[in-house]
Every structure is written in C-alpha cells, then in structure tokens.
What we know:
Layout: H1 3-32, H2 43-51, H3 58-91, H4 103-116, H5 121-142, H6 144-148, H7 158-181, H8 184-195, H9 206-220, H10 222-230, H11 242-264, H12 270-282, H13 286-310, H14 319-339
Helix pairs in contact: 1-3, 1-13, 2-3, 3-9, 3-11, 3-12, 3-13, 4-5, 4-7, 4-8, 4-11, 5-7, 5-11, 9-11, 12-13, 12-14, 13-14
Amino acid sequence: MHPLTAALRYRNSLITSGLLAACAACFAFAGMTGSVSIPLADMPAAVGELWNGGASSLAATLLELRVSRALTAFVTGAALSLAGVMMQALLRNPLADPYVLGISSGSAVGALGALMLMTAAWVVDLSAFVGAVAISMLLYFLARRDLRGGTAAEGGTALLLLTGVILTSLCSALVTLMLSIAPENQVRNMVFWLIGDLSGAPLRWTPWIVLAAGLLYALRNARAMNVLALHAEAAATLGIHVGALRKGLFFVSGLLTASAVTTAGSVGFVGLIIPHALRFAVGPDHRLLIPAATLTGGAYLVLADTLARTAIAPQQLPVGVITALIGAPVFLYQLHRLRK
C-alpha cells in the first residue's frame, strides 16, 4: 500500500473513532442531564439495571426515558445530515439542504392535515410519510429528464431545483390555509410539528433501518460522488453512470428526509450546517465526509434536544427552535469564512 494511502486511511479511522467517542459522551451527557440530574456515580448502577432488563430505581427510570429520546434525536439528526451531504452532491451546491426540494413541505401538508382532523398519532406519522413520498414522486415525474441526464454540467439541475421551489410554495400555501382554518386547540400542536419537536417522538426501528440503508448506499458511492463533485463535466467519460447516481442520490436523500421529518417534524439547519462545517474541518472527500457528517449530525441533535428540554425546565422547547438559534449565526459565520 502506498504510504500516502495508508496515512489517509489512518487519519480517516482516527477521526471516525474520535467522533464515535464524542457520540458516546453526548449520550452520557443527555442521560445525566434533566430537571432531576443523575450523578455520575449512579450511572453504572442505572446502566446495569437497564442492561438486566429492569428499571426499579429512579435513576434507571430517568435514564431509560432520556436515552430513548436521545436515540430518536440521534437517528433524526444523522438522517438529516446524511441527506444534506447527498443533496449537496446531487445539486453540486454546498449550500443546499434536505428541505430544498420540498419533500419536508409535502410531509407537513400530510401531517398537519391529520392533526387538524385530530386523528391518532400513528395516522399523523403515516400521513407525513405519505405526503413526503407523494411530493418526491411528483418531483421526479416533473424533472425526470433532469435526473436522467448523462452529464452534470452547470445548470443541469436547474429544472429539478426550480420544480422543488414551486412545489414548496404550493405546499406552504396549503399549510397556511390549514393553520387558518384549524381548531384553536390543534394549532399549538401543528406549530410545534412545523418547528420540529421530539417531546412525543417514540423510539422506532424503522428510522434506523432507513439510516443504515442510506449510509450503506452513500459509502458504496463515495468515490463516484467525489468524481461528480470535482469533475462533473467529465464524470461520464471517467466511468461514472451519472444518471443512475443522480437518481439514486435523489431517492435515497428523499427517503432519509421523509423518515426524519416523520419522526420529529421539520427540524431546520442540521442538514445544512453540519455537512458544510465538516467540509471546512475534514475536507470534501466523501469517503470521510459521509460517516463524519452522519455521526456529527446525530450528536448535534442529541445535544440540541438536551438543551431544549432543560433550558427552561420543566417547560420544554421545540428542538427546532434550538437548532435555528444555533444554526443561523453559525451558518452566517461559515458564509463569512467562505467569502474570505
């Protein structure tokens, strides 16, 4: 093996291992922090109780609740961040985010429609997912030539992006209409869903399966994504099946976005600032950027949700408020750095 290749692999492994350790620390912090804190000395006993399948003590009960919510936050943040990386590769724009094509807006229409009708929680989740999938299919139908294009020259994704903007505007109008005519006792829940909230999100296996499948697809196509980003005009001549890659990035990032939005609502800025910041920190190589963004996005949302439920405890804030308050100034700083 070439010495430079070995050094690069060692660096990537070191960064990934460090991020895994940081994620573990975030989970420990989330488990200990709350209205009633758990002392560090009590954590081993609480973990042991949960490991043995019981939660008899107060510390174990609190830890079970907090870790369950932290796991939901992690899978949501990881899916949004990974979707952001793939969407930025698809559109060849580091400022793109998972919501740019209107998939979250379609999910909002479905979820708010179900909330307005005061249906069960599982119906709201199903309606949100169906809305996201419907917009994805409509977007693909309207811009399929753009995705099938054999080249990725500048302007090749213009129709796709413009169609997404139009569909977002249409869905936003429907959301405004539903908020205007909804019963007053449902408006608060609808607004919280629009902002992004994890307080009532259950821990489910489906988002983890979607995340694992999306991560596997992204890692298998990391080299092709590098070629598409650096040599877009010549990607086809270098052996990259550009049309298949672009369709794959579109559908997988759309599925990740639909899964995340269905779980926690429209949590903003995670899929935008995390991939963008990591390009400054670790470079644009997707072989490292993909796992780094996935781990960092998950850890970031775990910390943001911990802050959301403890900042003005016992009252809880929507996690989307925290990500927006942190993400907006961070993104402005990144833009300033980019301009310099």
